[in-house]
Amino acid sequence: MEDERPIGPQIGKSPGNFFQTDVDLKTQQRRAAKRGNKAGESGFSARKINLLSGKTVKIFKGHTGPVTSLDIWYHEGEEYLITGSWDKTLKKWNTKTKNSLHTFTSHTDFVKSVVVSQTKSILYSGSSDRNILSWDLRTGELLPVTMKGHTMGVEDLVFNETEDFLYSASSDRHIRKWNPTTGECLHVFEDHLTSVYFIRVSDDEMWSASADKTVKRWDLETGNVDTTFTHPDFVKCLAVFGSYLFTGGRDETIRVFDIGTGTMIREIEGHFDEVSCMVLQGTTLYTGSLDGTIRRWLISDLINAGKETEAVKTLSPNLDKFEGLMTAEEEQELAELMGSDDF
Questions:
Q1: pLDDT tens digits for range 207-260
Q2: Which of 23, 24, 115, 210 sits at 20 to 30 Å (Cα–Cα) from 182?
């Protein structure tokens, strides 16, 4: 699909906005709508939400910057939440009491990705400082294994199914394969043109989503790309269900592709801001967006090209009773960062 966005400056047609482009005005209108959505939150929290009712069950507060990533650690019958934040720290929480049990501090810039090794009880974290650090979750100790090689921030981390290899995606356009025990870089995947936001590994293949407006499928045995799916804008997330690929991105649209033919079969407009994450649970797809909502979709509806599709449920918990924690200056800084093309 070709990029239909205009090239060059498009001067606003409204007399009161002569020095702003039409694209700028549309963006402002969309953000104004977003600010009016009471489901959004300006605090620095993680939430546990009941997927049936859409209500917040628990809130974990303690970070002093937006929470960017999370994972769950299961240990000796207990469940712990791990969070990473723009405040450059990670935290371990007791999911029953909501108490913060430990704060991990060694990164020198935003923490953007976390992943837990359940077999070794080790936490790995990726940051805008370009490093991947490792931590003993039982003691909180920073381990000597640090993975260095990326030249820009680490956007995503994921293990293969056996946790033998760790994969990292970066704004430097590269994906790296690591030995998580020694920290040795085993391979560099180079085919994207710019930032890689999201990766998933399954069996002998890897999927990646990028700001170069593509999703790529990689053969892990050869290290080469075997299929590319093009989009009109940045792609921020993806999910694979059988022979179908689902993607979400900056243009607020969910797309469905037939993997076998490589063709797009559906475009679904449900969110009104960037679709930043998605996850499959059984035959249901959950999508999260900067519009402040999580939406639930039936896979059977999404792959039916002849059917009008709406989210089965929109989860937008009432956050009014939880006050925001940012100052006006911090709100402005966050808005500028969110509006950046490189975010």
A1: 999 999 999 999 999 999 999 999 999 999 999 999 999 999 999 999 999 999
A2: 210
pLDDT digits (tens, 9 = 90+) for 45-75: 999 999 888 889 999 999 999 999 999 999 9
Cβ contacts of 90-97, under 8 Å, gap ≥ 24: 90/114, 90/123, 90/125, 90/135, 91/60, 91/62, 91/63, 92/137, 92/140, 93/46, 93/60, 95/48, 95/58
Q: How far is CA 284 from CA 27, 281, 313, in A?
A: 30, 5, 11
User: What is the spatial distance between Cα 92 and Cα 71, in angstroms, rounded to a whole number?
Assistant: 10
| Mean of pLDDT over the chain | 86
Dist CA 81 CA 50 (whole Å): 16
- Residue carrying the six token digits 């007399």: 15
Q: Read off the pTM.
A: 0.82
Give the type of residue at 298: L
